[in-house]
Protein: Amidohydrolase
Amino acid sequence: MEHSTITRKNFLKSSTLGFAGLGLVPQLINAHPDHKQSIENSMETTGNYTLKNVRLETGFDYENGEVIGTKTGLFSVQIEKGKIKKINTTQNQANAIDVKGMLMLPSFKDMHIHLDKTFYGEKWQAVKRRRDGVKGMIALEQEMLPEMLKNSTSKAEKIIELLQSQGTSFARSHVNIEPTSKLKSLENLQKALENKKEGFDTELVAFPQHGIFYTDSVPYMKEAAQTDIDFIGGLDPYTIDGAIEKTMDFTVQLALDYHKGIDIHLHETGESGLKTVEYLIDKVNENPVLKGKTYLSHCFVLGRLDSKTQEEIAEKLGNAQIGVISTIPFGGLIMPIPTLTQHGVKVMTGNDSIVDHWNTFGTGSVLYKTNLAAQLYGKVTEFDLSRMLKLATAGPIPLDDKGTQQWPKAGDDANVVLVKASCSAEVVSRMSPVESLIYKGNIIF
Structure:
């Protein structure tokens, strides 16, 4: 499970690992040595280069009012200082990198993952049988964390490389903040992120994995809130802390005091789960500054509600601008993702755990999650498949619902993937392999 990180300069120099090995830059490989070095130096120092023969989606093909295909064209894309500077149809630019008709899409985002604790990169071990539910797992973590922290930085780097290999350049990572590791998990992860900053970025959630009050994580959460983390997290306030209001009030106030967002793990599927959702909606409506900055991760209770209640809660979540970050799938539980999106709820997904003591099924691919969602909800048409790409990108897709091109535009960040596919619908349906990842203009592979 080792993945090597290749700098842009070494990547271009290598005939087996670089674009040359993929057949993408014949004009660079065949260039005069002095000219070739000039191109490499330009890319290394300025990040400026042009890609030609880039396939971009331009619109839909219709038959009797139904979308039956996706129109594409070949373009050149000029990248400068981490941004897309210019897009045109001219293909004869000297020194341009020829991507030979590969489809360009926005790079992917994993919006729920735990980069700070994993077995990834070590020997295989399956999940041990759980005892005493989440509290039993908390006790297990308390035993395991001191040893896991010894090399958590290097393992986080390995997971980041795995995500990059699947086309992901951004993640929202939850980071343990509790009395066992205190802020050590955060410190170790920050080292990994600094080492990978040229090709990867994150949002960080201060996550009280062992409960806010169950293990007295309050002082450590307050300390974490004063760092540059982005979200205040939480975990099953009734099951773990025994008090919805007390726990949620602390979480919301901490977010308000330090101008953070909120992202709560909610696994509870019964009455307490629904009460937690409704209480959070009320708190966000009382504090509008939290709208668009508040999320419920998992939120499995939504999958247990009758359809009428699902509609009601989805409407309330949409009005409060509270997003849902869903695990796809989760056993036999079917989350009402179509209902949520119909009511304007922002729905995202992520790998959650990758080879750790909670789960071993994480592949590192949010495209895989997107494919599973498309199958689960019967999204089989050209139009519907193309819309599902939002789950992999956490938002931007090439065409709006009317088929008007909305991405890429000049000025956009140069965060892109190149895939061998005809359109985004095919990418979702066939899980087309990612051939190249570019992040802020940096060619990662």
User: Anything to note?
Assistant: DSSP finds 15 helices and 16 strands in the chain.
